[in-house]
Design goal:
mainly alpha, 6 helices, about 80% helix, globular
Length: about 140
């Protein structure tokens, strides 16, 4: 399980780094969407390991794995909001905290509910669209 967990963490960190290096909002959103696809692909390539990590890891070194991913996402979104948010809009750091944790819950849910890869992909595509619109709204972006 170490290899699968480390591999996902590395893919996610690379995705976050690409989004951070983006020079505009559209590129950052594109990188984020591609990162979601990479994460989902990787999870489904190692589905049995992630069923154990996500659903059966209480009392192991992986019981806080999703929280660690959420912390990384939270750190990124705090920076993302400062970089791209409109001056008149403020986003409560607690909102960012909760929403970033909830974002990883979506990956957990498709795994826990035994969604096929195709079903998970469709669900995550909808989630990305929903999240993009929501972040733009809370950040005061009129696109």
């Amino acid at each position: 399980m170490d290899d699968a967990a480390d591999g996902l963490m590395n893919i996610y960190l690379e995705s976050i780094q690409k989004a951070k290096e983006s020079t505009n909002l559209d590129q950052a959103c594109l990188e984020g969407g591609q990162g979601t696809n990479f994460v989902l692909d990787y999870v489904y390539q190692h589905l049995q390991e992630f069923k154990l990590i996500f659903c059966c890891s209480a009392g192991t070194e992986y019981e806080d794995y999703l929280d660690r991913l959420g912390e990384i996402e939270e750190s990124y979104y705090l920076e993302f909001v400062r970089k791209y948010g409109q001056d008149k809009m403020t986003v409560d750091p607690f909102f960012i905290h909760v929403f970033c944790r909830a974002g990883w819950q979506t990956i957990y849910e498709v795994v826990m509910h035994n969604r096929t890869y195709k079903e998970a992909q469709s669900f995550m595509d909808s989630t990305v669209l929903f999240n993009r619109a929501g972040w733009k709204a809370v950040m005061g972006i009129e696109k």
